[in-house]
Write a structure and sequence with these properties.
By secondary structure, the chain is α+β, with helices and mostly antiparallel strands. The chain has 11 helices and 9 strands. It folds into 2 domains: 78 residues; 236 residues, Bira Bifunctional Protein, Domain 2 (BirA Bifunctional Protein, domain 2, 2-Layer Sandwich). The strands form 2 sheets. A 7-stranded mixed β-sheet has the order 1-4-5-9-8-7-6, with helices on both faces. The chain has a two-stranded antiparallel ribbon with strand order 2-3.
Length: 342
């Protein structure tokens, strides 16, 4: 019985001696003596172990103990003697941290330069959807039903009937422009295209093209050659030469592959041009009359030329980058090299 009284008196002494100095210590005091699981509950429960003549005395002691805990807590709470935890307030007048500048992607740099070069000779920019239908991507351009370009290994079809697909070239934009606008037409079509190819240092399933179209009366292959000469010399230097090799495309006739003289070795032969002195940059040709007819343009009155170049190809040549995959990795070590282009 005496031990029960001694425990209660010890708790009372601890309450009277407590001096919580911080907000955290005051909260700990409240939890210990006034919280839902405080130490006083066990002391109140010990009253059942006392004889009847001592219960009144013990009850008075417990009331004193509880009142002392409440008074101590309120006193410390209202006195403001407890110190708040120090909060570091930043100097709002200090200058902020500067963020590092980004840089244009090399693909964007070359694309914008190509647009600028062709704009100087009257070409405007046209854009179209990346999800295309079979008509604009293949049929209107004279691609036969059995042409290998339609095969699943080259084209990403997104419908079971192969009517909808991810465009394989920006030539589809040419068809849309010819359908909706009347000649003369002089425009380029930059954009992203998709082909189901194995990703390697020289190929990717997604890449970028710039295609051009010029339709007017009396347009000849000589006009095409002059435009390509101008582009090559503006992009790679005044001493750059260009040559045309016969080729085949379903939507042009005659068709040609375009090569430029290697601007690195000056045509003497190096690793870039595979010691041939020439580097391929794209394809071109005169627009096939059937393509004009499909777009409701009179081939007896109008003629035109078209060309197409891969932006990645031009960028790799311009900056001597030997792996196409680097363009899609967003490696800051590569991109930081083009900060000067901002």
């Amino acid at each position: 019985m005496q031990e029960i009284f001694d425990k209660a008196n010890a708790v009372l002494a601890a309450i009277n001696d407590a001096k919580p100095a911080t907000a955290e210590e005051l909260e700990a005091f409240r939890i210990q003596y006034l919280g839902s699981k405080n130490v006083l509950k066990d002391l109140f429960g010990a009253m059942a172990q006392l004889p009847g003549d001592r219960k009144k005395e013990y009850g008075q002691l417990m009331n004193t103990l509880k009142a002392a805990a409440e008074a101590k807590y309120e006193e410390q709470k209202n006195s403001g003697s407890t110190t708040q935890q120090k909060v570091d307030v930043p100097d709002l007048s200090a200058p902020g941290y500067s963020l590092p500048l980004g840089s244009r992607h090399p693909i964007s740099i070359i694309k914008n330069k190509m647009i600028d070069i062709f704009a100087r000779i009257g070409f405007t920019v046209a854009e179209g959807p990346e999800v295309e239908d079979d008509w604009h991507n293949f049929t209107a351009l004279g691609t036969p039903k059995d042409h290998p370009a339609r095969d699943m290994q080259d084209t990403f079809y997104i419908s079971e009937d192969k009517h909808w697909l991810l465009r394989t070239h920006t030539s589809s934009v040419q068809v849309r422009m010819m359908e909706t606008q009347k000649p003369p037409l002089r425009m380029i079509m930059p954009g992203r295209v998709y082909r189901n190819e194995t990703i390697s240092a020289r190929a990717h399933c997604t890449f970028h093209q710039v295609e051009g179209l010029y339709i007017d009366e009396n347009v000849s292959f000589a006009d095409l050659k002059q435009a390509m000469y101008y582009f090559a010399q503006e992009m790679f230097g005044r001493d750059t030469q260009i040559r045309f090799r016969p080729s085949f495309f379903p939507f042009t006739e005659p068709s040609a592959e375009m090569d430029i003289s290697c601007f690195i070795c000056g045509g003497t032969g190096c690793a870039v041009c595979k010691h041939s002195g020439w580097v391929e940059i794209g394809g071109c040709g005169m627009v096939d009359p059937h393509v004009l007819e499909n777009s409701k343009i009179d081939p007896a009155k109008y003629s035109g030329y078209a060309f197409g170049m891969g932006i990645e190809r031009i960028t790799m040549l311009k900056y001597q980058i030997n792996d196409l995959r680097l363009f899609f990795e967003n490696d800051i070590r590569l991109l930081k090299q083009f900060e000067s282009a901002l």
